[in-house]
Every structure is written in structure tokens, then in C-alpha cells.
Design a protein that fits this description.
The chain is an alpha/beta fold and 682 residues long. The protein contains 18 helices and 25 strands. It has three domains: 339 residues, TIM Barrel (Alpha-Beta Barrel), CATH 3.20.20.80; 201 residues, Rossmann fold (3-Layer(aba) Sandwich); 58 residues, Immunoglobulin-like. It binds beta-D-galactopyranose. Beta-D-galactopyranose (GAL) binds next to loops.
């Protein structure tokens, strides 16, 4: 939990912004290590993440350890003032482990058992895996507890493994028995009467492996919850050992953002001292900039508003064959993106990876030291960035009070909402969680409005405006807390389809979006999904698509109605966008998927009504402006993502150049300014 104790543990860390990356010296002869530390010093690197995939080198046979090479690496790094984020290597069990414990290998939904030869070849439910992971964690902790280079524990790597098969089935049954108590309750909750699925014995229930046609949605959703709980259990195993052996050393684990969703980020964050993230741009163009902002906002929010660590980004090419090729980053982009992460609360920037390997699965992935060596554009930029981070060292101080960025808007983020949205056979495949959340975040980014994400089971009252772009399954308790938020003066925006079921995916009777109906002051009679290329016009000039609804007012007012060309089910003028005063607050509803410009216009209207301001009046439209706190000082980050020089009015000290600013300041295309403002947050 990021509490006061965490603050004390992390104190050993502050002083400078962390700079460095994943370091894999075990892949190289020792003479290269000496070149490594020389280059690290030249580049201003002060942090190395070591041992992430070293299990087979550290434990070459069951119970036999070889720490000699790691001892020498730790000593060498320490002698060169490089702090070590020491990983537990449990993401990649060695080959001997698979042979000794074949039942601990992962199994796909189709029943195929996967073999070692890549990474993550383990089943998190397997007792043998859990025991082996605990043993190597304890051995490492005991060996390096007192080593002066040890700055932080990096547990595992990107938890996210899901496995089916007999070992999982047994664990799943145990989880279900605990949750439901008896089979009658489970049968009723899952409505197993549908398609003759009634279970008479626990042994009849399996993880939802491949089946003939559509599976039971409640069964699948519970399996996702179970799988995430398993991973939390794996994390707990290791954190308990590390806290016992090294109570003063902070613990982190790296979240793969935002695409991995097999774990519960909020639950993870409560267990560690600091959230770390791995973040790779999902797009080359401007969407890549919004992606950086999104990843950073997630990380900070998961970390309860405290500074967080960027554990991995790439200098240029990223190993992702989804699109069949890797794309190079243009000069200056790595720097600009890094400043974006810092603006949004990062305590530094680490990379995957320090040095590109000569061979191995990801051998053409970029690094700080590329294959072509240090005499390269990439290493030059790496060195310049290291020097610049040195000039920004004062940002390493945690805020003396309050969150590192103080935002008044939050978007609801919940792993459960994502899993629910993955249910097959929903009325439209255009109801994806990540897409909806990203669109809301991007609209705010374009408006220059900065936001957090919030756990719907957490504290909504901190915010003036809360957005719910995608949350199909809403429990009565959650519905009550959204309603209480509005009554107490909050502004809530709910997107179509949200709240249409309870937490077990049982449709709420009487009208869709039923969990929100009293709050929104309306009744949704029918869902009317649209074809992918079909658009509808609203009577305020907005364009929308993908989805529409037959909505009846029950206290709300219509802000925009459907036009006359909507689906025949929907009469012209019937409510599309609504607004409902409730208690001291207002609840807004968007019953259709607004086109980007219309979404921005309506969110701008709503945030204005909610009294939400931007960090700077010039923010938006590619000029990203974010206020960050460090110590008792405020810093304004101004990042120009456009292709023209822009000249916002700024006042304070330019931290990178030392010049005093008071008036319009030219920020060249692609450049950034970090201003220490003349105010304090006391
Ligand atoms: C990360 C992972 C690294 C490396 C990298 C490649 O997700 O943690 O080990 O695989 O991706 O981009």
C-alpha cells in the first residue's frame, strides 16, 4: 500500500530521477560489462533493472544456486553508482522445472499444454510453481538483503498469465465454493438452467475451456475474476517474503499498460510500494502522444496519485509483430514522450533495454545501446536525455502534500468492467471497454483537460466530474455510490449500455442502464445497435454512430434529440443526450456513440458546467500542458506536439535553461518547456 511506510522505504530512492533500463549482463562476456558501466556513466544512467529473466542462470538445477555472476554484477554497478532494481525471475521458469513438474505447465482453453522454450510457461495455480517461485525469491532476498546496490525489488515481470487444465479446474472450484457457498446459489446466479448446464457436483465445473458454441457469460466472467485473484496471490507470496527479509526495501511490479487485462491493477497497487509500468506506443502519429498521456494517467491513478516509475519504454523499434513490422521513432520523440511521462508523475524513465542482444527471441528490439554501438543517433539522444534528466533532478522530490497531479476529473477504470465488455454475444461488438475509455481520455486530452482514472469502488468524492464510458455490470452498491456522488454535488457522465446488468451479468429488468436509471432520470426501453458504417444525426448538429437507443425521460431533460433519419424504432426528437439535476449534482447520459468532435463539444460543455478548468488557458489541440508537484513547488510542463511554434504566456523559471519567463514564450514544434512556477502549494 502506498502509505507512510512506503514513503520511508522509497526515500532511499529519491534525489535524482531514475534513468536506465533492463540490464542483462548474463547474456554477455564479462569484458562487455566494463564497457557497459563506462557507457552508463557517460549517459547519466543511475539505475539498472537486473535479473528479470535469470532464473535458469541463478538456479541451474533444482535447489542448486549460482549467485557468483550476480554478485559481481551488483558489486560492479555499485562501484559505478548505479542502483539496482533487482527482479525476482519468476516469469520464466527454467527447463528443468517443466520436466520435474509437467502439471505446472500452462494449458490453453483448447486443452493444449504449452512447453518451455519461450517465457511465462507456468500455471499460476500450480502448487509446484508457487513453491519454486517462493524458494528463489527467498534465496535472492537473503543473498542481497544487505547489498548496498539494492534499491528496490521488482517482483516478477508483467503478471498476466492465464492457464486452463486440471490444476486450474481444481483451484477454480475452490474459489467458486468460497464465493457461492453451495451449488444451488451458483446455479441460480449463473442461471445454469439456460442450455441444460445445471451442476450437481463441484467436480462437474471446469474452467471455461473450448466448447461447442457460446459459453455461459457469468461462468466466463467469474473465471476472469478467479484468474486475476490467482495472480494477486502469486504477488502476495513474494511480497510477504520480501517484507520479511528486507522490510526497508521498497517493492514494485511492472504493469503492462494498457493492453494486458488479466490482473486487477487496483488490487496489485494496494500491495506494493510503488506502481511501475511498461509502456509502448500504440501508434506512430499524434495518437501515440495521447497514448503516453493515457498510460501515465493510469499509472499515477493506480498509485493513489503518488509518483510512479516508468519501468520500460523503447528508444525506437518495439517488438510487436501485430502489424507485421516495427516502426522507428523520429528524432526527439523519445525525449518529448519522456517529458510527458514526467509531467504526469513519473519519477524517471527506464527502458527496455540497456543493450540490444545479439540473438534471442527479441533480438531486433531497440535499446539504449543499439547493435550499431554507442557511436549512433540513438545513443547520442540517450546521452542528451540523461543530461536533461539530471537538470530536472528537483522533480524527484515527492509532493509535500496531495497528489503529484491534482485533477478534478476522473474516468472510471475497472478490470471487471473490461472483462464484462469482453462477453461474447453482446448486442454490438462496438462496446469494447478500452476503446471507450481511450476515446473519453483522448477527447479530454484534445480539450486540454487532464484527468485521473478512478476505481468505482474507491473515493469518487475527490472529483468534480466522473465519466463512465464503459461499465456494463454494475452492482447495487456501486449504483448507490454513483448516485450518492451526484446527490452530493458531483457531475456524472454515463455512456450508453453502462449499468444494463448487475455484477453477475444478469440484465436489470424494467429498462436498460437500469443501475443508473434513477440517477439519470430516464428509462431506456430498447437498444438499437447500428451497422459499422451507419451514422445518425442529432438535432444539435452532432453526428453519432455504432449505437442508438429508445430513451424516455423520467425527470431528465433532453440536451440533444435524435434526428428524423434515425432508426424507425426511434422517433425524431426523442432523447439522445440528456441532463438530470439530482440533489446538488447533475447526471448526464450519452445514449449513442458521438463522433469525436461532438464528444469533445459535449464534454467541454459538461466540464464547464462542473467548474473544471484546464491547467492553462492555451492547453489543448496538441499543446499539452500539465501541472505537477514536487516538494512544495508546482511545475508547469508545456509540450508542443504540433508542427508549428506556439507561444503560450508563461511565468516562472525555465528549469532546463534557467531563464526567467514572464510573458509569451516560443515553444518550437516538438519541443517542451518545464516551468518552475513562482507559487508554492502550501
Ligand atoms: C515488455 C517486457 C520485456 C520485453 C518488452 C519488449 O512487455 O517486459 O521483457 O519483452 O516488452 O517490448
Amino acid at each position: 500500500m502506498p502509505d507512510e511506510l512506503s514513503g520511508r522505504r522509497l526515500a532511499r530512492w529519491t534525489g535524482r530521477l531514475a534513468y536506465g533500463g533492463d540490464y542483462n549482463p548474463e547474456q554477455w562476456p564479462e569484458e562487455v560489462w566494463h564497457e557497459d558501466v563506462r557507457l552508463m556513466r557517460a549517459a547519466g544512467v543511475d539505475t539498472a533493472t537486473v535479473g528479470v529473466f535469470s532464473w535458469s542462470m541463478l538456479e541451474p538445477a533444482e535447489g542448486v544456486h549460482d549467485f557468483g555472476w550476480l554478485d559481481r554484477v551488483m558489486d560492479l554497478l555499485h562501484q559505478n553508482d548505479v542502483k539496482v532494481v533487482l527482479a525476482t525471475p519468476t516469469a520464466s521458469p527454467p527447463p528443468w522445472f517443466s520436466l520435474a513438474h509437467p502439471e505446472a505447465l500452462p494449458v490453453t482453453a483448447a486443452g493444449v499444454r504449452l512447453m518451455h522454450g519461450s517465457r511465462d510457461t507456468y500455471n499460476p495455480a500450480a502448487p509446484a510453481y508457487r513453491a519454486a517461485a517462493r524458494r528463489i525469491t527467498r534465496a535472492l532476498a537473503e543473498r542481497y538483503a544487505a547489498h548496498p546496490a539494492l534499491a528496490m525489488w521488482h517482483v516478477h515481470n508483467e503478471y498476466g498469465t492465464v492457464s486452463y487444465g486440471p490444476v486450474t479446474d481444481e483451484a477454480f472450484r475452490g474459489w467458486l465454493a468460497e464465493r457461492y457457498g453451495d451449488l444451488d446459489t451458483l446455479n441460480r446466479t449463473w442461471n445454469t438452467a439456460f442450455w441444460s448446464q445445471r451442476y450437481g457436483r463441484w467436480e462437474e465445473i471446469f474452467a471455461p475451456q473450448a466448447t461447442q458454441y457460446l459459453p455461459n457469460p457469468a461462468h466466463v466472467l467469474d473465471f476472469k475474476r478467479f484468474s486475476a485473484d490467482l495472480l494477486t496471490g502469486c504477488l502476495d507470496d513474494q511480497v510477504a517474503i520480501l517484507r520479511e527479509v528486507t522490510p526497508d526495501v521498497p517493492v514494485t511490479t511492472n504493469f503492462m499498460l494498457p493492453t494486458w487485462n488479466h490482473y486487477d491493477q487496483w488490487a496489485f497497487a494496494r500491495r506494493i510500494d510503488q506502481v511501475s509500468i511498461d509502456h509502448y506506443l500504440d501508434n506512430r502519429g499524434p495518437a501515440g502522444e495521447t497514448h503516453v498521456a493515457f498510460g501515465a494517467d493510469l499509472a499515477r491513478s493506480f498509485n493513489a496519485g503518488r509518483p510512479w516509475l516508468l519501468m520500460e519504454q523503447a528508444t525506437t523499434l518495439v517488438y510487436d509483430y501485430a502489424g507485421g513490422r516495427m516502426y522507428a521513432k523520429e528524432p526527439g520523440r523519445m525525449r518529448r514522450n519522456t517529458l510527458q511521462y514526467l509531467a504526469r508523475g513519473a519519477t524517471g524513465s527506464l527502458f527496455f533495454q540497456w543493450r540490444s542482444p545479439r540473438v534471442g527471441a527479441e533480438f531486433f528490439h531497440s535499446a539504449m545501446v543499439p547493435h550499431a554501438g554507442p557511436d549512433t543517433r540513438i545513443f547520442q539522444e540517450v546521452t542528451e536525455l540523461g543530461a536533461e534528466l539530471g537538470r530536472l533532478a528537483e522533480l524527484a522530490e515527492p509532493p509535500s502534500r496531495g497528489p503529484v497531479n491534482d485533477h478534478r476529473v476522473a474516468i472510471v477504470w475497472q478490470p471487471d468492467a473490461w472483462w464484462a465488455a469482453e462477453t461474447r454475444a453482446l448486442p454490438s461488438s462496438d462496446t469494447g471497454f478500452l476503446d471507450a475509455v481511450r476515446r473519453a481520455h483522448t477527447a479530454l486530452w484534445n480539450l486540454g483537460v487532464n484527468a485521473d482514472v478512478v476505481d468505482p469502488d474507491g473515493d469518487l468524492a475527490r472529483y468534480d466530474l466522473v465519466l463512465v464510458p464503459s461499465m456494463l455490470a454494475v452492482s447495487d452498491e456501486q449504483a448507490g455510490s454513483f448516485d450518492a456522488f451526484v446527490r452530493a454535488g458531483g457531475h456524472l457522465v454515463v455512456w450508453h449500455f453502462a449499468g444494463s446488468t448487475d455484477e453477475h451479468l444478469r440484465v436489470r429488468p424494467g429498462g436498460y442502464s437500469g443501475a443508473f436509471a434513477p440517477t439519470l432520470g430516464l428509462r431506456v426501453e430498447e437498444h438499437v445497435p447500428l451497422a459499422a458504417d451507419e451514422a445518425v444525426a442529432l438535432d444539435d448538429g452532432s453526428t453519432a454512430g455504432a449505437w442508438s437507443e429508445l430513451v424516455h425521460l423520467a425527470g431528465a431533460e433532453t440536451v440533444a434529440g435524435y434526428g428524423s433519419d434515425a432508426h424507425p424504432v426511434i422517433p425524431a426528437g426523442s432523447p439522445a443526450i440528456t441532463r438530470h439535476r439530482r440533489g446538488a449534482g447533475v447526471a448526464h447520459y450519452l445514449s449513442t456513440r458521438l463522433a469525436d468532435d461532438a464528444l469533445e463539444r459535449h464534454l467541454d460543455r459538461i466540464r464547464t458546467e462542473a467548474g473544471v478548468t484546464r491547467a492553462h488557458e492555451a492547453a489543448g489541440g496538441g499543446l499539452e500542458i500539465v501541472r505537477r508537484r514536487a516538494g512544495d513547488r508546482d511545475y508547469l510542463f508545456v509540450l508542443n506536439h504540433t508542427s508549428e511554434t506556439l507561444s503560450p504566456v508563461l511565468a516562472g523559471t525555465d528549469v532546463l535553461t534557467g531563464r526567467e519567463l514572464d510573458g509569451p514564450v516560443d515553444v518550437a514544434a516538438g519541443d517542451a518547456v518545464v516551468v518552475r512556477e513562482n507559487t508554492t502549494t502550501n
